[in-house]
UniProtKB/TrEMBL annotation:
It holds the Pfam family PRA-PH. This is Histidine biosynthesis bifunctional protein HisIE. CDD domains: NTP-PPase_HisIE_like (cd11534). In the C-terminal section; belongs to the PRA-PH family. GO terms for cellular component: cytoplasm. Residues 32-103 form the Phosphoribosyl-AMP cyclohydrolase domain.
Amino acid sequence: MTLNPDTLDFDKGGGLIPVVVQDAATLQVLTLAYMDRAALEETQASGEATFFSRSRGGRWRKGETSGDRLHVVSLTPDCDGDALVLKVRPVGNACHLNRISCFGEEDAPGLGRLARLEATIAERADADPATSWTARLMAEGPKRAAQKVGEEGVEVALAGAAGDTEELANEAADLIYHLFVLLKTRHMVFQDVLDVLARRAEAAKNPV
């Protein structure tokens, strides 16, 4: 999505618009920054987040000195056109304190943990199967991964029927991990599953 700067209200903030920067995969809020018109235009032209630094009094492209860059996925204005949500694919950390986020030290809280798990599985795919269970499982192909999903599904059912809550949580975590591995072996991502859920939710709102 390309934004026309003329549709945004820079005047309300004295020439600046606040920008909430969010990890496109985990949806974790990484930082709050500001853009003037020139920073917005450069961000859209370069595909990398560029801001107006109030402390420096000028343009600032994230990563020019640290190498920790923010690759733009989308820019969405709010209903009044005086604030933006910038979704990015971060390379490195967003915070100058060498943390993933400026808002606390936790990595990918809540459901963002699923996206972080998916990214970790993708990284491990190229590891040595002799030292990585994930790499070894993926090397054995979809049938082996599917078998593990079946086994873990049974373990979840047994824990749900007769185990305690800790056992159920552990078995459910194993199932989710192996499901993500199976999706990866089939060249799929969890977003494919979420898309199905979204279509079903839309159909439920508009029954035929």
